Amino acid sequence: MATHPSHPPLGTTAPVAATDSTLSTVCDLAGLRVLFVDDEPGVRRLVAVALDRLHATGTVEASPVAALSLVEGEPDRFDVVVTDFRMPEMDGEELFHRIQAVAPSLPVVITSGYADDGRVRDCLAAGASGFLAKPFTIALFAAAVRHGVEGGHG
Hints:
By secondary structure, the protein is α/β, with parallel strands linked by helices. The N and C termini lie far apart (28 Å).
């Protein structure tokens, strides 16, 4: 399995490779419209490939401000949002709450390399649909998206 290094302070890597036969046993996300938000270019590239392989319609944004504009402009455009928690401009906590204000039924899954962040737990308690720890595999990503769409919390 290939990996992609994350930001140096995190010291993590993200698994990126999966064969088509492996993905056939993973949740198929066909028909789902996923908005993925992360400031790391490598993670965005990998998730874009994963969304394509999982047959989802993916929109990948570097900027949480741009992502929020998409949701505000068309609240029913996406079935689920997956957002990194620590980003410049606006963190995942603020993005989650602002999405809730304009699209309260839109599931938001939070991803982070900082699993022990109390603010992530606060978001989950406030209705975020799930947490996906970095690094994550395509299979875990697909499962988190499916869980979020199916109404899972926490």
